[in-house]
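Reopening this one. Same input as before:
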Amino acid sequence: MTGAEKYTMKILLLTITLILISTNTMAEWTEMFENDDKDGYTTYADLTSIRKAGDRVKMWTLIDYKTEQKASGVIFLSKTIRRDYDCMGEHTRILAFKLFSWNMEQGKRMRSYNQPQKWEELQPENKDEIGWNIACGN
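Same output, byte for byte:
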């Protein structure tokens, strides 16, 4: 292998490594709400995922369940949700979600959905309002 070929190979390997690192970054989950019921859960926000555009903010949240959940025939222990928050109108909607077989978005991805839902008004003192306050900086 010539010097030029070795250099080209090193650049190629470096490029591949950087692509893999940038596409496999892990979310940095910050706890924002805990429900201590028998079938409780903890809700987290990924503050690094916050994207602002005018009066709207998008952010990923994670719901980590203490017991197995079942929806549409799928059993899962955690769910990530990408939400769109209307900071002026106090509304929120789901943009996408993923269901995982294990806690903290680990294990097999059981189902995912990537289509915006309808806007909903915030309900006082629930996990969606807490997420709205975090995303909108209130």
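So the earlier flakiness isn't reproducible anymore. For the record, The domain at 27-136 is CATH 2.40.128.710 (Lipocalin).
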